[in-house]
Amino acid sequence: MLRVYIVDDSQAVRERLVELLAGLEGVEVAGMAADGEAAMAGIAALRPDAVFLDINLPGRNGLEVLRAVKAAPSPPRVYMLTNYPHPLYWKKCMDEGADGFFDKTAEFHRVVETVRELLRSR
Amino acid sequence: MTRGPLRILLLEDVDTDAELAARELQGLDPPPDIIRVETGGAFLAALSGPSPDVILADYSLPRFSGPEALHLARRHAPEVPFIFVSGAIGEEVAIEMLKGGATDYVLKHRLGRLRPAVERALREVRERRERERMEGELRESHEQLRALAGRLESVREEERTRIARELHDELGQVLTALRIDLSWIDTRFGKDNEQLLAKTRAMVALIEETIGTVRRIAADLRPGILDDLGLTAALEWQAMEFTSRTGIRCGVDVPPELPPVAPEPAIALFRIFQEALTNIMRHAGATTVEVAVRVEEGGIRMTVRDNGRGITEADLRPGRSLGLVGMRERARALGGQVTIEGRQGGGTVVSAVVPTGAGDQPVNTP
């Protein structure tokens, strides 16, 4: 099973992500969080294989979560899923160790593609 | 000015002269209360008490002198008019005394001038006080306006930040959700249904266009980059936007080791940069712009330099451009300043320096 963790402050987006990912064979949504603190705690406790992470979150933002998650030993893959798709954000996230960076609206399909790739590479 | 009698301090050693002076002053309104002293010691003692409204002094006195009295009066009661009442002292001495701070002088053989001289001196004091009061009020109102402008600016900034975030995040999330739902419909029902696919594709295009608009409006209000990535990224972003909009090349030179800048100086510098770019776009006829940021002792300096026609002295005159006033006030509100210099045909340099605001929370520095 590929265990996926979702971080997004919008319930509408979380619900749709879960629906989308849970429908894929071999994928389990291990947990989700709506803010930065909860995300850090949840990811540390559940140790998922992949995280889809929003940048703009209440409290600690996605960049801080990314840095904290990537600082831990054998961290999960982290894919930024954001409505701030500017190249400067992309660069910052890649510098901080993100494994991918998608425009939440225009590149949403990449979530499924990414998960499928991860499943294939296992 | 004073309620009750007019307090007149009279330094005069000759009884008859004192009486004559007192008689001349009878008609004053309010009626005078004359405190007569004859010696330096008594004069000084009188100055140390409640302040007189006018000082009248003889010029030549035994063991004391008019000039000494003037000197003491200037030291202890600089606001009180001082009028010499003397025998002939000569024009040069008279001028010397007026230069030394005496208000007027009246010759003893023309005492008829005494009352008008006192009245005039009192009127001048009243007028000066009134002027000072009005100047004080003007200054105060100026300060209040400035404080109000600063407050409005920061309220506006807070409002813009809030509206930008709400627009971007609330509307953005809903549009994202709709976009995802359309993908879901495509996958579920789109197979072999060209009509449905055409419709959903059109809807997707519309949603993406709307998202683009929402993002643009939000960034115009307040770029999230400034809050999320800090000043350097925000300047880079603004420079890119400017270049893509105007075709004017805009270079950003910021040292990589630039320490985090607190939110207030960061937003001030960012807004000053935007204003400078607006001016360049409208007036400069430039082809390149360079923005450089440097850390200085106690502050951070941003220099925006273009190669346009150069701002003129006339353009810089007060009242010509509210944009320039805005830039200056932004910096001043934080204890910084903005200087703007132009060379004809040699471009314009806007230089803003603001204190880094030690102790404030830095802008998010991921």
Descriptive account of the structure:
The complex is a heterodimer of chains A (122) and B (366). Chain A has 122 residues and is α/β, with parallel strands linked by helices. Chain A has one domain: Response regulator (Rossmann fold, 3-Layer(aba) Sandwich), CATH 3.40.50. Chain A has five helices and five strands; from the N terminus they run βαβαβαβαβα. A five-stranded parallel sheet of chain A has the order 2-1-3-4-5, sandwiched between helices. In chain A, α4 links the parallel β4 and β5. Chain B is α/β, with parallel strands linked by helices. Chain B folds into two domains: 128 residues, 3-Layer(aba) Sandwich (Rossmann fold); 141 residues, Heat Shock Protein 90 (2-Layer Sandwich), CATH 3.30.565. Helix content of chain B is 55%, strand content 18%. Chain B is built from eleven helices and twelve strands. In chain B, the strands form three sheets. Chain B has a five-stranded parallel sheet with strand order 2-1-3-6-7, sandwiched between helices. In chain B, strands 8-9-10-12-11 form a five-stranded mixed sheet, with helices on one face. In chain B, strands 4-5 form a two-stranded antiparallel sheet. Chain B is elongated. The relative contact order of chain B is 0.07. The C terminus of chain B is likely disordered. Classes of the chains: A alpha/beta (122), B alpha/beta (366). Chains A and B meet through α1, α3 and α4 of A and α5, α6, α7 and α8 of B.
